[in-house]
Write a sequence for this structure.
């Protein structure tokens, strides 16, 4: 493939020069040919740079990044250029994507990048032996990442990070329940907080695979967006001792919700029939120290201004009980207009409950009060 000025263009993302297809900038939906690049995904790549930067700061082993599905190398080339790494290896089946990644490597004068044209699992399996695993492994597919969990985990160093994107939102949000059960081993339910259920389904599936391999996963940071979900987990070599798989039980009548180890069929507040989502991850989804490190890292990087605000929300919710509420659903139950988020949180705190905003929804909040207690607090 010839990289001509007519069809390709040099852009800057973060601190990095990238050679991209012009059509990926001008077309509404970025085309897959000659290679896929989504300029709108800059924000999620910014979060990656922050998360990997925070991790590498305290990591003493070899700093190796494996990108299984690199496209034109937007994420990987940025990692090589913006973070201190020993070796960055970009893999994709599409040779045109790799050509562009190589070109961007030259534009940034990078010496620490290698390229591989292979099927992702074949690529990862070259790094799955002790001593050759990577400190950071990324899986960024079109659709579900679940089929790549085995090979991705095997290529991740013990104590390293595995990050994955999922873009099969309709499956994870409950439009195709059977497909979700088949791919992720758990069933979603359609609720206002469906994005949190989705993230927990992805983590739950990864946890089941990790368990088989004698590995433990610790979620460090997760991201929910209109177009994708993304998770970052630490991978440790030890069988997981915690019971972190279970269900979310939800009453469609009164809106009561709870994280539980076993399905519960009747609502403990109104005795109506519950719906149960799961099996899914019921443990923590943010690591407070890690999110703090991410916030500290921002000042060294060139990332979107909104990152800090979003991460501060993650920090506030990192130790909060699972499953958030939205102001709109509470207001519709109370048949009144919703209070301001700040006031709602203060109100709950003044009554002695824990409460915080959540990065999952601009009108969402977390609390240990149940829905009856929330409605009572807002009515007083
Ligand atoms: C969503 S894109 C990756 C985007 C990229 N990570 C970025 O940040 O711009 C998915 C990529 O996976 C590649 N791909 C799909 N199936 C693959 C497979 N089995 N092995 C290797 N690459 C594959 C496609 O060629 C495509 O470039
Ligand atoms: Zn109920």
């Amino acid at each position: 493939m010839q990289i001509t000025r007519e069809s390709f263009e040099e852009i800057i993302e973060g601190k990095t020069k990238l050679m991209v297809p012009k059509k990926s900038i001008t077309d509404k939906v970025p085309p897959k040919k000659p290679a896929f690049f989504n300029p709108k995904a800059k924000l999620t790549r910014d979060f990656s740079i922050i998360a990997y930067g925070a991790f590498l700061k305290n990591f003493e082993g070899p700093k190796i990044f494996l990108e299984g599905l690199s496209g034109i190398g937007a994420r990987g080339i940025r990692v090589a250029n913006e973070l201190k790494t020993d070796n960055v290896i970009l893999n994709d089946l599409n040779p045109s994507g790799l050509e562009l990644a190589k070109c961007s490597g030259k534009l940034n004068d990078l010496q620490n990048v290698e390229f591989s044209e292979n099927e992702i699992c074949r690529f990862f399996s070259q790094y799955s032996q002790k001593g050759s695993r990577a400190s950071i492994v990324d899986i960024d597919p079109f659709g579900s990442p679940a089929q790549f969990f085995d090979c991705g985990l095997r290529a991740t160093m013990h104590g390293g990070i595995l990050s994955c994107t999922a873009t099969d939102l309709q499956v994870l949000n409950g439009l195709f329940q059977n497909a979700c059960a088949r791919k992720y081993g758990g069933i979603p339910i359609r609720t206002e907080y469906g994005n949190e259920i989705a993230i927990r389904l992805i983590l739950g599936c990864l946890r089941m695979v990790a368990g088989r391999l004698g590995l433990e996963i610790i979620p460090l940071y997760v991201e929910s967006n209109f177009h994708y979900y993304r998770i970052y987990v630490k991978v440790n070599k030890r069988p997981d001792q915690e019971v972190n798989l279970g269900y979310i039980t939800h009453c469609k009548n009164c809106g009561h919700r709870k994280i539980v180890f076993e399905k519960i069929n009747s609502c403990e507040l109104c005795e109506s029939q519950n719906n149960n989502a799961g099996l899914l991850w019921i443990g923590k989804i943010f690591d407070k120290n890690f999110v703090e490190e991410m916030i500290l890292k921002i000042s060294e990087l060139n990332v979107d201004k909104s990152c800090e605000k979003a991460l501060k929300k993650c920090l506030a919710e990192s130790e909060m009980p699972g499953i958030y509420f939205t102001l709109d659903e509470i207001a519709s139950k109370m048949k009144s207009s919703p209070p301001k988020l700040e006031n709602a949180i203060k109100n709950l705190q003044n009554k002695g409950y824990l409460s915080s905003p959540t990065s999952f929804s601009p009108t969402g909040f977390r609390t240990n009060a149940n829905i009856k207690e929330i409605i009572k607090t807002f009515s007083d």
Observations:
- The chain has a mean pLDDT of 96.
